């Protein structure tokens, strides 16, 4: 018969072996997870964009599939081709024209054939920067090569940054093309993908809440996407009409620029403020019309600050401030992609926290016995 000391020693050995086995298995699982992440990380951004595009466009995909006999693959192919025609082709054309314009400007400066018009005298009356802008502008009109030579170090840095921006835009466009193709594949197998995603949520959050959190995540992504794109379109329309009323040249081109800035979550004031400056400097407007157009363009440039709180929280089972804070915080830390991730994560976190608050055992016991908190006290 074993003594108590022998029994304790045997139990300690079994526990040690089990603990060692558990640690080894956990280490192997962690190693496998890190290896998978290392392999998948180059495609992570593209796959997240593809998932966001697929979730956002899936209702349109289903509508299109219903008109082509329920053929999911054909509907996905048509949507991808439409995106190439509507989004990618114009972007490539604009990029090519931009490159040609930059080449012409550089060639004109090098050959001393570029002509800068003389500034208006009203430029010197601008507050704070008027005199300096007028002096630089006048020097560019009188002797552009000397001005370029004096600013050559700064122009070199600016050219380097511009090349980096152009290269970044090219890479982003290529990534967007692949993301749209992957999104088309996801939409073609949308039902299976939705079931797999719901199964993941049910495994993480439980069977009772898995479907609810799946629907919440889907609604949040769609609300942020429609809010961003919808706000950008509305703001571009407001500013475009304002530019037409003011008689500003290239109003359509400027409206398209505002649309692109809105989608990229950049302020439309980057367009409206220079236009306001041009209105006052051109000398073609009287004081009252110039002031009216300036107010109209300034209000149009600030319209997104009013529209975002209205549109971002629609159709989501979470308060609008939660969606807005999540989108803005995610955008500040992770750019446009972070905007979707931040809004979705904060909405899920809010729902989980509120479920935990509502799941109060003490309150449940009081409700079961019919006692109020004041009576129990």
Automatic annotation (TrEMBL):
Family annotation (Pfam families): AI-2E_transport
Keywords: Cell membrane, Membrane, Transmembrane, Transmembrane helix, Transport
Main location: membrane
Compartment(s) of residence: Cell membrane
Keyword Protein biosynthesis: no
GO terms under cellular component: plasma membrane
Residue ranges crossing the lipid bilayer per the database entry: 46-66, 78-98, 162-189, 219-245, 251-273, 285-303, 323-348
PANTHER family: TRANSMEMBRANE PROTEIN (PTHR21716), TRANSPORT PROTEIN YDIK-RELATED (PTHR21716:SF67)
Family stated for the protein in its record: Belongs to the autoinducer-2 exporter (AI-2E) (TC 2.A.86) family.
Name this protein carries in UniProt: AI-2E family transporter
Species assigned in the record: Candidatus Accumulibacter proximus
């Amino acid at each position: 018969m074993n003594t108590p000391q022998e029994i304790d020693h045997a139990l300690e050995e079994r526990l040690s072996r089990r603990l060692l086995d558990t640690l080894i298995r956990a280490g192997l699982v962690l190693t496998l997870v890190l290896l998978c992440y290392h392999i998948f990380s180059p495609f992570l951004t593209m796959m997240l964009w593809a998932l966001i595009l697929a979730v956002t466009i899936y209702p349109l995909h289903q509508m299109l599939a219903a008109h082509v006999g329920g053929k999911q693959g054909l509907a996905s192919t048509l949507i991808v081709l439409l995106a190439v025609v509507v989004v990618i082709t114009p972007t490539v054309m604009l990029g090519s024209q931009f490159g040609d314009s930059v080449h012409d400007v550089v060639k004109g400066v090098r050959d001393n054939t570029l002509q800068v018009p003389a500034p208006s005298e009203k430029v010197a009356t601008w507050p704070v920067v008027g005199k300096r802008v007028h002096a630089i502008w006048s020097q560019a009109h009188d002797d552009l090569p000397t001005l370029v030579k004096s600013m050559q170090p700064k122009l070199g840095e600016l050219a380097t940054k511009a090349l980096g921006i152009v290269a970044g835009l090219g890479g982003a466009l290529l990534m967007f093309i692949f993301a749209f193709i992957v999104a088309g594949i996801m939409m073609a197998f949308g039902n299976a993908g939705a079931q797999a995603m719901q199964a993941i949520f049910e495994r993480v959050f439980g069977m009772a809440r898995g479907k609810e959190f799946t629907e919440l995540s889907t609604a949040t992504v769609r609300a942020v996407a429609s809010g961003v794109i919808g706000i950008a379109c509305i703001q571009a329309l407001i500013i475009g009409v304002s530019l037409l009323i003011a008689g500003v040249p290239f109003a359509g081109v400027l409206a398209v620029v505002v649309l692109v800035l809105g989608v990229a979550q950049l302020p439309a004031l980057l367009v409206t403020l220079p236009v306001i400056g041009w209105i006052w400097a051109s000398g073609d407007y009287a004081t009252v019309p110039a002031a009216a157009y300036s107010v109209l363009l300034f209000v149009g440039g600030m319209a997104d600050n009013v529209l975002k709180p209205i549109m971002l929280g629609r159709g989501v089972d979470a308060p609008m401030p939660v969606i807005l804070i999540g989108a803005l915080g995610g955008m500040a830390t992770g750019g446009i992609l972070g905007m979707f991730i931040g809004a979705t994560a904060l909405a899920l976190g809010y729902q989980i926290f509120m479920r935990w608050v509502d799941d109060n055992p003490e309150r449940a016991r009081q409700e079961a016995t019919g006692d109020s908190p004041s009576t129990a006290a």
